[in-house]
Amino acid sequence: MTIYKEILGEQFEKLHPMLQKRYTLPEGKPFKATGIMKKISGGPKWLSPFFLLATRWKFLFPEQGENIPFRIVNTTGTGSNGEQQVHWERTFQFPKNKRYFNALMSLDSDKNIVKDYLGEPSLFYSELVFFVSEKGHMRIESRKQRFVMGQLEIPLPKVFQGNVQVTEYYIEERDVFSIHVFITNPLIGALFEYEGEFQADDF
Length: 203
What we know:
This protein has 3 helices and 12 strands. The longest helix is centred in the N-terminal third of the chain and has 8 residues. The chain has one domain: Lipocalin (Beta Barrel). Strand 11 and strand 12 form a beta hairpin. The protein is mainly beta. Helix content is about 10%, strand content about 55%. A 10-stranded antiparallel barrel has the order 1-2-3-5-6-7-8-10-11-12.
């Protein structure tokens, strides 16, 4: 059973059937898709040096734009501690650079959250909660977050956190998945956002 089906429980059956198929993720069969991000935007310009530094960890990036080619690969595997993990590789092909926004997710069934380690190696940790909207959309929101320095994880006060909201749904008329990721901070406002569509390679 995938970590997403486990955390959603009965809610999983309320997802659009194509989202159920997309998030089942059987081991040994990655989900692969390509598409276009209609827009990618960031926060204030003074954050650009930090975003540029974050590219070393395949985390955030300073580039912005419209109609950016996009590729996503989700792969299920087993971690060294025996827990099921899902690797997220998100690739954005800008005119001059290829950028990534990668993560490794696993389940904490006791807390009923998904543990999301962002970057390679991990630079940032966020607890994620998953739920299904009345329209059958996948909704994801962040909770507690930590800054990761090797084996050391430093809890972040709320004023320093990036509050994540994700909505993913399926558009039957065009046979595409639609995704909107929006990250904000209580002090700065908008930090990072992308919105677009993608189509599975082998559905």
